[in-house]
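Known limitations

C-alpha cells in this collection are predictions and should be treated as such. Users comparing against experimental data should check residue numbering before alignment. To illustrate the layout, the record for Putative pterin-4-alpha-carbinolamine dehydratase is reproduced below. The input appears on top and the generated C-alpha cells appear beneath it.
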Amino acid sequence: MEQKLSRREASDSVSHLGWRYLLGTLRTSVPVGSLARAVEVAASAVAVCGDDADRHLRVDLRPDRVVLTLQSLDLAGLTARDVDLAHRISAAMHEGGLRAEPEIGTGAPRSVQILEIAIDALDIAAIRPFWKAVLGYADEAGADGPEDPVIDPVGQGPVIWFQQMDQPRSQRNRIHFDICVPHDEASLRIEAALAAGGRLLSASRAPAFWVLADIEGNEACVTTWQGRDGS
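Generated C-alpha cells:
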C-alpha cells in the first residue's frame, strides 16, 4: 500500500471516478449548493478516510464546491492507499446523491488544476534559500536538495521551482507560470489562450508541457502528467 505509483498507474486507477492526477496528487471537485452542504461533504470524506484522513486528505470548502486532494504526505507522492481512499470517497459522494468530477466541459468556471511559479536562475542553490525564507515556505518530503522546489507548508500557495539558465537573459521575463491541468483539459485551455490573443511558442515537449506567451512575450506553460516518464 505504501509503494509509490507511477503517473500512469495513478491516473488510470481513478480517472473513471472523476479524479485527475495533478503533480503527485489526486484531485476532484464536488459541486454543492451551500457552505453548510460543503461542510457535510467534507465531513463525509473525512469519515470514510478514517485514520488515514490526516496524512492523505486535504479539503478546500467553498459555497459552490468542495475540492478534495489526496496524497501520501509523508512521501509527497501517491500510493495504493490514496487510490483506495479515492474509491471510498467517490462511493460516499454517489450514495449521497453527489458527484466527484474534474469539472471539465461542465460549464464550471474552470477545471481542477494546480498552479506553479517557475523562477529562472543562474545559481539556483544561491537564490533558493531567499525564496524559501521570504515566502515562509518549506522543503517537500524527500526533496530538500539545493535545487529542489519549495512548497507552502499549509498548502495554500503555489509551488515555487527553479529553472536553470545557461546565461543571463535580461530581455526575457525570469518568472513564468506553470498551470498543471488534467490531461484531458489541456487542449481546451490552450485553445482558449490562443483565442484570447496568445501565441504557442513551443509544443516540442508536449504533452508534458506547451509554452505559450501573451502579446508582449510573457510566458506561461500548460502542463500535464503525460510524457514525463515514458508513459
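For this record: The chain has six helices and twelve strands. The domain at 7-95 is CATH 3.30.1360.20 (Gyrase A; domain 2). Please report discrepancies through the issue tracker.
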